[in-house]
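Schema walkthrough. Field components (list of strings):
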Amino acid sequence: MMSAAQTQSVRTGHVTRMFIYLFLLLSALFYLLPFFIMLTNSVKPLGEITGGNMMSLPEVFTLEPWKAAWSSAQVGVEPTGLRPYFWNSIRMVVPAVFISTILGALNGYVLTKWRFRFDTILFGLMLFSCFIPFQIVLIPMARILGILGLAGSTYGLILVHVVYGIGFSTLYFRNYYAAFPTELVRAAQIDGARFFQIFRRIMLPSSGPIIVVCVIWQFTNIWNDFLFGASFASGSGAPMTVALNNLVQSSTGVKEYNVHFAGAILAALPTLLVYIVAGRYFVRGLMAGSVKG
Amino acid sequence: MTRQGETDFRTRLQHWLPKVVLSPSLAMVLVFVYGFILFTIYLSFTDSRILPSYGWVGLENYSKLWRLSHWTTSLTNLGIYAFLYITICTALGLALAIFLDQKIRGEGALRPIYLYPMALSFIVTGTAWKWFLDPGIGIEHTMHLWGWESFRFGWIKDRDFAIYTLVIAAVWQTSGFVMAMFLAGLRGIDSEIMKAAQIDGASNFNLYRRIVIPLLRPAFLSAFVILAHLAIKSYDLVIALTGGGPGRATELPATFMYSYTFTRNQMGIGASSAVIMLMTIAAIMVPYLYAELRERK
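Field assembly_structure (string):
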């Protein structure tokens, strides 16, 4: 990648280069601006926000809005802060990511190393499920969750996210395992290794990178989901995004912008941390999800 | 004898195991995706209101749907929004990718900045955007404080312009992603072709217009497909930014479906609007996925 970038660069004049740098820097400001606004205004007292300038740095630095957003702000009817909903999201995300990743790995393994008739069609069916507008499943899903007694609960959301996460996790592992030498699998088979032994001893040990990609993708997607959360768990079982929306959109009382911003950053923190620590894998997942093949 | 039978059973089990392992996922997808799609299609032909009911009404929901100005407005909004969103995202993404590909110092720091909005929910970043765009406290107010008294930017409160604020925020969120797609495409171009063209004396502009951009066709196609399907599915964005207002100025099919199904208790009509959304996405995705899967064989 590096060498390609160096050899194919185009000769550009000074003026052009100046323009390019200017464009790139202004774009960077454009992308950073909303986050800058959230961050600076989350540590200002409310008076400084309503009476002042949103672009200015805080004159008085305070962490009160963060404390309020976390543990005492009015979310819905209860002044619980976002804390319980944060844990709801954690309780939802961890099992959903775990299960969908394992299923994706097994599916990818079967679809590439144990091929059978119509396997491509089956994969196509799974793949298309990643792209459907989820509005098309909302009504029956609400019914089924009601019948199963899972409506409004974290368990219901785990089920939903596993089901609609399988498509992407299968896609990742299938494309990754497609490049894995099938001869190794055949050789192990001749040596008497069985289906799960091959998976555990041969496939899994070399799947590190794709596991990271898949976990990060699923984590980000499920954490950020709003539609399913709002449809199936809007009460005390709500995930973080739904609770944040309730906090921000609530029409009662004074609008505490600083608390809203602190809450928004709290809701963004987990995915943002993942992005900072493992952004490379996040981008890989993004690309694998768009440029299939 | 029993030993023989046992080995037989184990071989047969090994033979079936791959399919057994695949079947739970497959069953889930068949029921929860395709079964549910069929169920929703069925509901769109019934008189369902608050709850699903099974009185057959034929195409009535569809004819009602198309007579609703609420629906045609959301479709028009989607048309404007999707067109601008796809065009601007592609143009900005391409520009950023081409510029970043010029041996830029600090590329490693810039790329993650362009891309981070993709990692955040719009419910989160929408709080900042909503505020920034609000004339009372946002950029308009700031400009006034900085001395530009006549500055006006009240699009988000204006029926005729609110839809463009959706475009701005959506472009902000996904253009970095498009940039990454184009950058991958650019880095995949054979440098010999570029050198040959430069030796032939092609100007930079012509080099990109005649050679590089045509070579990026697959990236254009992927970007279009991804952006189009994201545009049709846009929901969080509207909820966080405008809630569909002012009036119905930013209502999209996704918000229409939700409000008709769950707040206005017109489930039949909601279902028919969901079917139309699915059909539109299928018309884009199915040929694309079909081509991608066939190429691999």
